[in-house]
Amino acid sequence: MKFDYLIxxxxxxxxxxxxxxxxxxxxxxxxxxxxxxxGGNCYDYTDDNGILxxxxxxxxFHTQAKKVWDYLxxxxxxxxxxxxxxxxxxxxxxxVPFNFNSLYKVFPEGYASKLEALLLEKYGFGLKVPILKxxxxxxxxxxxxxxxxxxxxxxxxxxxxxxxxxEEIDFSVTARVPVYTSRDDRYFQDTYQGIPQKGYTKIFEKxxxxxxxxxxxxxxxxxxxxxxKFDKMIYTGALDTxxxxxxxxxxxxxxxxxxxxxxxxxxQEVAQVNYPNSHDYTRxxxxxxxxxxxxxxxxxxxxxxxxxxxxxxxxxxxxPNDENxxxxxxxKKEAEKLNNVFFVGRLAEYKYYNMDQIVGVALMEFEKNIxx
Length: 372
Ligand code: FAD
Ligand code: UDP
Known about the structure:
Radius of gyration: 22 Å
Low-confidence stretches: none
Structural class: alpha/beta
Shape: globular
Strand order of the largest sheet: 8-7-15-16-17-14-18
Strand content: 15-25%
Mean pLDDT: 97
Helix content: 25-40%
Bound molecules: flavin-adenine dinucleotide, uridine-5'-diphosphate
Oligomer: single chain
């Protein structure tokens, strides 16, 4: 059998493109993934305790893009959920992103109120200030506050997560969790937020259930590429691996997830608690906060960051900094020479994309380059 497209990777990038190509162009697709399941890093499943867990860490859907929300809403209903995160700061659980509520948790009321007034005067209400920007302050109290947040929320967490200090990694990384001049404790302020009512894997089952789509799991594309016939390829795996690392290694960070279950209905107050300065793990996720559950047990996962080594673990995060960006550009030039291969996705584009961005990028790739 001959396929019009070979798609490598059944995460959001590959699965959205498979769905578009099959349903809109009526073309035949073979989608291949190394793993035993579809869904890429968004894969979830119901564990022995009856709790839907995210195999690769907490996945919360949030977006400003109505187009992306509407597209995915064809494949799922949404459970309304607003993510709230607490960070353990010297034993006190403090809302993160650090906001006015956090101030009152860690400082005496009088001083917290002085800092709140200073932040309002300098930035106004509802502004998101990246920690590295806040540190540029010359006001003595605001500088003290910035140093406090840097020390208690950012530096330890970032060292664990990336093996680098906040200033050694692209500014945009710590800017994902800015200081927020507000009382809003939610982790995201996007218009559209939620958890798929039946989980993420069900979305992927629907995306891929079309007679034009053939799914092949537990298969590295390199092992079958000589044996199958296809016209074009869409590649969503690691970019350097595709080119046999001719320009050297593009580094990624990986994680080890340690799952544990308890005979109790609650382990922690919110779905995610961060541990910037204690323990070797960065955060604990308790999954039953995401979706209602009848279970009388609970399941948590601790995340231990580590370097990615091909063949040993999975590449989860590109590491955005100047050196890696330059290397990526060398690979991008190689990619541009190949007319019949499209490179799409968090690994293939070496970008710290969220789910909604990946879906948006895949839809755009389809409209601009594939359907033409
Ligand atoms: P992936 O999901 O990584 O899929 C790529 C697939 O390609 C993989 O399944 C892989 O097995 C396969 N593959 C690679 N090489 C080969 C090969 N040679 N042969 C066959 N198959 C291959 N985003 C959010 O919006 N909200 C969140 O809360 C959130 N939390 C996250 C938490 C963690 C810990 C991580 C790691 C990511 C999180 N994300 C979150 C980001 C989200 O996971 C990604 O945006 C999304 O999964 C990217 O989709 P993708 O298709 O590009 O890549
Ligand atoms: N971060 C931090 N302390 C926190 C939360 C986040 O230092 O309590 C920094 C850290 O560098 C992290 C980055 O902000 O990698 C982005 O955090 P986010 O929660 O977006 O990470 P993700 O969920 O993508 O792993």
